[in-house]
Structures are given as structure tokens and as C-alpha cells.
TrEMBL record:
GO terms for biological process: carnitine transmembrane transport; mitochondrial transport. One of its GO terms (cellular component) is mitochondrial membrane. It catalyses: O-octanoyl-(R)-carnitine(in) + (R)-carnitine(out) = O-octanoyl-(R)-carnitine(out) + (R)-carnitine(in); (R)-carnitine(in) = (R)-carnitine(out); O-hexadecanoyl-(R)-carnitine(in) + (R)-carnitine(out) = O-hexadecanoyl-(R)-carnitine(out) + (R)-carnitine(in); O-acetyl-(R)-carnitine(in) + (R)-carnitine(out) = O-acetyl-(R)-carnitine(out) + (R)-carnitine(in). It is a multi-pass membrane protein. It comes from Oncorhynchus mykiss. Belongs to the mitochondrial carrier (TC 2.A.29) family. This is Mitochondrial carnitine/acylcarnitine carrier protein. The keyword Transmembrane helix applies. Mediates the electroneutral exchange of acylcarnitines (O-acyl-(R)-carnitine or L-acylcarnitine) of different acyl chain lengths (ranging from O-acetyl-(R)-carnitine to long-chain O-acyl-(R)-carnitines) with free carnitine ((R)-carnitine or L-carnitine) across the mitochondrial inner membrane, via a ping-pong mechanism. Key player in the mitochondrial oxidation pathway, it translocates the fatty acids in the form of acylcarnitines into the mitochondrial matrix, where the carnitine palmitoyltransferase 2 (CPT-2) activates them to undergo fatty acid beta-oxidation. Gene3D superfamilies: Mitochondrial carrier domain. Keywords: Membrane, Mitochondrion, Repeat, Transmembrane, Transmembrane helix, Transport. The chain crosses the membrane at residues 72-92, 104-126. Solcar repeats lie at residues 5-96, 105-193, 204-290. Pfam families: Mito_carr. The lineage of its organism: Eukaryota, Metazoa, Chordata, Craniata, Vertebrata.
Length: 298
């Protein structure tokens, strides 16, 4: 029996999935941002971090286990509604394309529904990402400009109004819209692939859900990393450094560090993508089962 798509249930289950994602993935996110934004070493200097594991070791040594969870309050507060909105957008995108509740959507339709969810999340995501990046790099630099997320918002607003808070929105869209399409399409594709004949994808085993969710995260980031590197750079740059926006960032990166620099933080991202998204989709599916049981008519 096909369960009618309920964007409302998607909203709550997605929020729970988001909390699972942050707990599983935040330590590697901190490392990713630190690697992406570390200063270029001068002639004869060795780089601040030799790589993912070195950054991990240094962070643990200097700041303890807590250092890996730096800036986690902002993503928990931001990610929970964001994943709620993200899964809501996906549910809505699917529902809008169905003529009857039993319609099975094609992969291009699932991709389109995923892209819609990317548009939805950017509105919440852009300011949250900007604040998260600023807080993560100030800890690494050792100078404290912002006392915390709210203080960061206040100062940004004072310096350059709402535009300061939303800086990097276009880049967030460029990153999230195609990547979200890829994310949800891959997840649904793998779910169908792993479903035994005559069974429904809703009855998948926990390892299968973990695998499909983890792989969806990897496909999502394979598309998202280049714009993500540009976005981290742009959002943490001093005011006025890139007058023409991301075009300047791209030019500078290619000139100084070549094409490979667009894949900075790749190891950290991929190491994090699997467990974090596996946790997210498992949380989502479990919450969905609970909601369908608790409120079947919703």
C-alpha cells in the first residue's frame, strides 16, 4: 500500500534526522572548515595542518574532545529546522508531481523534487553557514571577535545590515540546489536497488538504510564541494576583499592554488558524509515509522 506523501510528517521526521546528522558529523565539519580556510604557508614554512588526520590530532591536543564540537550549537539550532524544511520541500516536490498518491516518480522527477528542497533550505542555511564558518575559524586563529552565534549575528548586522548576514547566498544556492537533487535521487535509487523483489522500500533493513543514506551523502558532496570551497572562502573573507563576489574568489583560487584547490577538504567531507548522512536518513526513517504509527491520518 502506498502511503500518501505527507509533507508535514516529512517536516518532523526530517528535523529528527538533522539532529542525528549533526551529532554524527560535526567533528569532521570543524576539520573541513579549518582545512579549507587555513592560510597559505609562506616560502619555507610548513602548512598549518598537513592533512585531515593532522588537523584532527592538533585540534584534540590543543582543545580536547570539546574542540571538535566547536560551534555545534548553531548547527543544532539551524540544522533541525533546516532538515525539517529540506525533507518538507522534498515531500512537497514529490507530491506536486504526483497525479495520484500511488504514482511512482521517475528519477528526473525525484531530482527536481530534491532541487526544490535545496531552494527551501538555502533561506535558512545561508546565514547559519556564514556564522558557523566565522566561529569555526576564529577558534583556529586564536583571536576572539565573536562571543557566540548571537553576538556574531549582532555584529554582522551592525557592520553591514541584513546583507552581511546573508553574504554568500548565491553560492549557497549554487551548492545546494543541484546537490540536493543528487542527494534525494541517489537515496531513492539505492533504496529501490536494495529492496528485495516483492517487498516495499519502506521495509528496508537498518544496514540497507544506513548504506543508502551514506552513499547519498557522498554523491551529494561530490557535486557540492567546489561551490562549498568558494563559499567558505567568500563567507570568511574580510569585507570588500572580493568586490565581484564568487567570480573573484574562483579567479584567486585557480591562480594561486590550481583546480585541485576546489576539492580542498575532500577527505574530511567524504569521511563525514557517509556516517553523518547514514545517521540522518536512519533517524528520518525511524521517525517516519513512528509518526505513521502514532498519527496515521496526518
Amino acid at each position: 500500500l502506498a502511503q500518501a506523501i505527507s509533507p508535514g510528517k516529512n517536516f518532523f521526521a526530517g528535523g529528527f534526522g538533522g539532529v542525528c546528522l549533526v551529532f554524527a558529523g560535526h567533528p569532521l565539519d570543524t576539520i573541513k572548515v579549518r582545512i579549507q580556510t587555513m592560510p597559505v604557508p609562506g616560502p619555507g614554512e610548513s602548512p598549518l595542518y598537513r592533512g585531515t588526520f593532522d588537523c584532527f590530532k592538533q585540534t584534540l591536543a590543543k582543545e580536547g574532545f570539546k574542540g571538535l564540537y566547536k560551534g555545534m550549537a548553531a548547527p543544532i539550532i539551524g540544522v533541525t529546522p533546516m532538515f525539517a524544511v529540506c525533507f518538507f520541500g522534498f515531500g512537497l516536490g514529490k507530491k506536486l508531481q504526483q497525479k495520484t498518491p500511488d504514482d511512482v516518480l521517475t528519477y528526473p522527477q525525484l531530482f527536481a523534487a530534491g532541487m526544490l528542497s535545496g531552494v527551501f533550505t538555502t533561506a535558512i542555511m545561508a546565514p547559519g553557514e556564514r556564522i558557523k564558518c566565522l566561529l569555526q575559524i576564529q577558534a583556529a586563529k586564536g583571536e576572539v571577535k565573536y562571543a557566540g552565534p548571537m553576538d556574531c549575528v549582532k555584529q554582522l548586522y551592525k557592520e553591514s545590515g541584513i546583507r552581511g548576514i546573508y553574504r554568500g547566498t548565491a553560492l549557497t544556492l549554487m551548492r545546494d540546489v543541484p546537490a540536493s537533487g543528487m542527494y534525494f535521487m541517489t537515496y531513492e535509487w539505492l533504496k529501490r536497488l536494495l529492496t528485495p523483489e516483492g517487498k516495499s522500500p519502506n521495509e528496508l533493513s537498518v544496514p540497507s538504510v544506513l548504506f543508502a543514506g551514506g552513499m547519498a551523502g557522498i554523491f551529494n558532496w561530490a557535486v557540492a564541494i567546489p561551490p562549498d570551497v568558494l563559499k567558505s572562502r567568500f563567507q570568511t573573507a574580510p569585507e570588500g576583499k572580493y568586490p565581484n563576489g564568487f567570480r573573484d574568489v574562483l579567479r584567486e583560487l585557480l591562480r594561486e592554488e590550481g583546480v585541485a584547490s576546489l576539492y580542498k577538504g575532500f577527505t574530511a567531507v567524504m569521511l563525514r558524509a557517509f556516517p553523518a548522512n547514514a545517521a540522518c536518513f536512519l533517524g528520518f526513517e525511524m521517525a517516519m515509522k513512528f509518526l505513521n504509527w502514532a498519527a496515521p491520518g496526518l
